[in-house]
Design brief:
Number of helices: 5
Organism: Aristaeella lactis
Protein name: L,D-transpeptidase catalytic domain
Number of strands: 24
Structural class: alpha+beta
Strand content: 25-35%
Shape: globular
Helix content: 10-25%
Oligomer: single chain
């Protein structure tokens, strides 16, 4: 009897390994209605995603300060951090460093001078008080040379929109702010992803949409890069016909908020909330300057509401935004694993489990990124919850938008 139990245990162990290694034999079915369905998602700790080296990364890496006239001599700060490189240790050091801001009210803006002179009217950029971090380069008497990305808004007399500059400000206006040491956010304007870092590690990845300046007439819609503090929980607000929930201010009128919704009426005359207009653009530039964030839960259970509920309100959470200027995104490796439901699923996923898929149908079936443009995978849409790598055609579009700014 003991011998039989021993062989039975071995057989069960082999069966479990077989199921994990060959998910194609497990039925999976996407949950078509993306609303809440109240099921808890199991944690598949034994299944790991391939390393970052397989993901889409910059063709070459750049730092914000590399083309600046006055070079940064700090050991490590936002301005000499390589944009796009997922170096968790370096990113976390930057996310937990204090931020230097200009004293003043949250929506007050200061014109930065080209020369350290009281009567100077040659303005090189605009900085928002209290929330926008500035790069301190050198002090001369009562004046300090700083670097930032201009936060000029629509109608501003300083026509410098989201461009990097160096200029002078009174030293007395500078103030150092401590930041939260538990969470930090990184927004990549090239990849259109929001990364949540927790205690030194990348915690989750979310789809987002930053500002889209369609032409030279609305360059003020471009979201400025740089360092920012999440200084106030504004809440929901109306933007024309759209409702933007969970608004959190990081730069004057620029907020991080949930992807907008609006009220629609069906054929029966019933009113319902629809996200269709804006949700389809997550993963590319689409907003008027704010950062729209997905409402769908990531596999780690994070969405816009989670940010609202969990980020620190004092000390402030730091947000760093990587610019897309002078950057180009390469394709993911063809061997990168993606996942889908072979029984009628319409999405492809970054992980074998997803909050938008019923847990009883997981893990899903694997295929490779190299197969994404071949049948039957070529008609699959990227999942709005688990932020899978975009298709090569979409990466080409992201790169084209980046080049348009240069």
């Amino acid at each position: 009897m003991v011998i039989m139990n021993k062989y039975l245990k071995k057989l069960l162990s082999l069966l479990l390994v077989f199921l994990l290694l060959f998910p194609a034999f497990c039925l999976a079915e996407d949950y078509e209605d993306y609303g809440d369905f109240g099921e808890e998602i199991e944690e598949w700790e034994d299944i790991v995603e391939p390393g970052d080296t397989l993901l889409a990364t910059d063709v070459s890496y750049h730092t914000p300060n590399e083309h600046s006239e006055v070079k940064c001599d700090h050991e490590l700060c936002f301005w000499n951090l390589e944009m796009g490189r997922m170096d968790e240790e370096s990113i976390w050091k930057v996310l937990t460093q204090p931020v230097t801001v200009l004293s003043g009210k949250q929506r007050e803006q200061v014109r930065i001078l080209a020369r350290p002179e009281e009567k100077c009217t040659d303005y090189v950029g605009v900085v928002t008080c209290a929330s926008q971090g500035v790069h301190v380069l050198r002090q001369e008497g009562d004046w300090t040379l700083i670097e930032a990305y201009s936060s000029s808004e629509e109608g501003s007399a300083v026509k410098v929109f989201a461009e990097q500059f160096q200029g002078w400000v009174k030293t007395s206006r500078l103030k150092e702010e401590q930041v939260d040491q538990h969470y930090g956010l990184v927004i990549d304007k090239l990849q259109q992803r929001l990364y949540v870092f927790k205690e030194g590690k990348l915690f989750t990845t979310m789809l987002c949409s930053t500002g889209f300046a369609k032409n030279k007439a609305n360059l003020f819609h471009e979201t400025p890069a740089g360092e920012f503090l999440m200084v106030s929980w504004v809440g929901g607000f109306q933007a024309e016909t759209l409702w933007c929930a969970y608004g959190m201010r990081i730069n004057s009128g620029i907020l991080i908020h949930e992807v907008p919704s609006r009220q629609e009426t069906n054929k029966a005359g019933e009113t319902y909330t629809s996200y269709a207009r804006c949700e389809r653009y997550l993963g590319e530039k689409a907003s008027h300057g704010c950062i729209r964030v997905q409402r769908q839960l990531t596999p780690e259970g994070v969405n816009a509401k989670w940010l609202w509920d969990n980020l620190s309100r004092k000390p402030y959470t730091k947000v760093i935004i990587w610019d897309d200027m002078d950057r180009e995104l390469g394709y993911p490796d063809d061997s990168l694993l993606l996942y889908y439901n072979p029984k009628g699923g319409t999405n492809y996923h970054s992980q074998p489990t997803c909050s938008l898929v019923k847990d009883k149908y997981e893990p899903m079936t694997a295929f490779t990124y190299g197969e994404l443009d071949t049948k039957p995978y070529n008609k699959l849409e990227p999942c709005p919850g688990c932020a899978p790598m975009p298709r090569k055609t979409k990466i080409d579009e992201l790169n084209a938008k980046s080049r348009k700014r240069q």
